[in-house]
Amino acid sequence: RWQKIFMFPLWSKMAVFWNKMFLTIIVLLIVLFLDAIREVRKYSSVHVNEKAANVNSSAFDHIQMKLFRSQRNLYLSGFSLFLWLVLRRTVTLLTQLAKEMASHAALETQVNDATEAAKKYMAENERLQEALSGKGNGKKKELTGATEEKLKEEVERLKAELQKTSDAFHKAKTEVAAVKKQSEGLRKEYNHLMKEFEQLQVGGSGSPCKHCV
């Protein structure tokens, strides 16, 4: 399913600009995150100074509103930066999983073909042995021996290829299982982070002052 989705022509056109777009968004989010940190530190210090100075309530509420907005921007930019990196990693894992599944299917087909060919040669060898078992002059025995040797060599070669293909198949199967396990762990971590983000949104949804509404 993912292989079919990623084979859309739209993605191949976007792939040329994808890395540039990703880096641009990362740089933008980092700039916003650093700016939010600067604003939070700035208005936090001003908030403490103004509170200690006992200034009028209007100025104090304005500073409190600025502090709330800077904290909100800090949360949004930080989680956006983190979730964007998680999204990139998720797409990478899904792409690897789709490729491993495709190679897994190809190796399985190759193993089946090699098995069928080996069975076919073994059946032909048995038929030749049965056909030549009762005929006993020396020349025919030599031809029969040479044919049997060739068939044995061919069977051994096919068995070696079958073993090699089977080993590659098991290796690909192990890699697919590892990618699936990593993707499952990433999905659980993503769900956990989304729950924390929703809790932070619920906790920060209240306005600290009447001017923030």
UniProtKB/TrEMBL annotation:
This is Endoplasmic reticulum transmembrane protein. It is found in: Endoplasmic reticulum membrane. Residues 153-206 form the Bap31/Bap29 cytoplasmic coiled-coil domain. It comes from Oreocharis arfaki. May play a role in anterograde transport of membrane proteins from the endoplasmic reticulum to the Golgi. It is a multi-pass membrane protein. GO terms for biological process: apoptotic process; endoplasmic reticulum to Golgi vesicle-mediated transport; intracellular protein transport; protein localization to endoplasmic reticulum exit site. Residues 1-106 form the BAP29/BAP31 transmembrane domain. PANTHER family: B-CELL RECEPTOR-ASSOCIATED PROTEIN 29, BCR-ASSOCIATED PROTEIN, BAP. The gene is Bcap29.
